[in-house]
Amino acid sequence: MRILVVNAGSSSLKLRRLGHRDELLGEQDLAPGEPLEPVLEELGGADAVGHRVVHGGPRFSAPIVVDDQVRAALEALTDLAPLHQPPALTAIDAVRRARPDLPAVACFDTAFHAGLPPAAATYPLPGAWRERWDVRRYGFHGLSHAWAARRARELVPGAERVVSCHLGAGASLAAIRDGRSVDTTMGFTPLEGVVMATRSGTIDPGLLLWLLGEGVLPGELAHGLEHESGLTGLAGTGDMREVLSAVAREEEDAVLALGVYFHRLRAAIASMTAALGGLDALVFTGRIGERAPEVRARAAAGLGFLGVALDPGLNGVADADAEIGAPGAAVRTLIVESREDLEIARGVRAALGAS
Asked: Any catalytic annotation for residue 311?
């Protein structure tokens, strides 16, 4: 089965065409507003299309064939992932218009975390709220975390306890035991967790209530948390490369931003390790996790009590799918290229009953 993978982000659209053995037959990254139809023609034929959809809500915990009812249900979840759900729906509609013959399958970032233990998934809120609105911790980046854990166990046979760090403009961690998610940093929406490029990560809800009481409007609050917080709120830019450059120039705001970023990140790694009762492999993935040796080094610094230690030489030159841990370290540390396209292809075949 040849599969067209459509990965819609908040500001980009990645297209990958995979062959029968998951070999890459073609790829194209589109800028916002770029017409899709000519690119689909250029990429060539496919037998099915798989779409990355960030939020599946309580209903969708596995890949599913998209029909009109499913599409309407996905649109109803827009408020829970306002940066990502609309682009995914736009891509679904565009591919359907261009290639109505292709069966379309939605693959969810939340699905990998659908089996979280109740203790990890449940918010300590009034039962009436939890029941009425299906309030729970859903978790995200599941396609990336699932692949990272699968690849880590190939690189380090016997690695049962894996902490996956997906670090990009959006960022989250997952605690994975025997290939199953048992905890994660994002929650009901992709706002919870560690510091991100423009998103705040975890904030005291009492502070948000106080801001509302001080006259900040709900829409203004939502925009600030989604678009003007995180590294952007602290350093004036969400681009980690620019932040690191500013730190090298000893710019005070950037130094503080990086301090906050790594303080939260290290705490999250330790928390995920606690959920697993120990750690066999620490994985860095995502654009920043794969491409920024300094970020990996700073993240690992201070985690020696967990058994984490990097080899500076390997960390500085290693490419994707490589080990960067110091010889003899108790925890194996890896870089794994994020291959959401392969996870989506697996989901498409499962939903369509193909081998």
From this structure: no
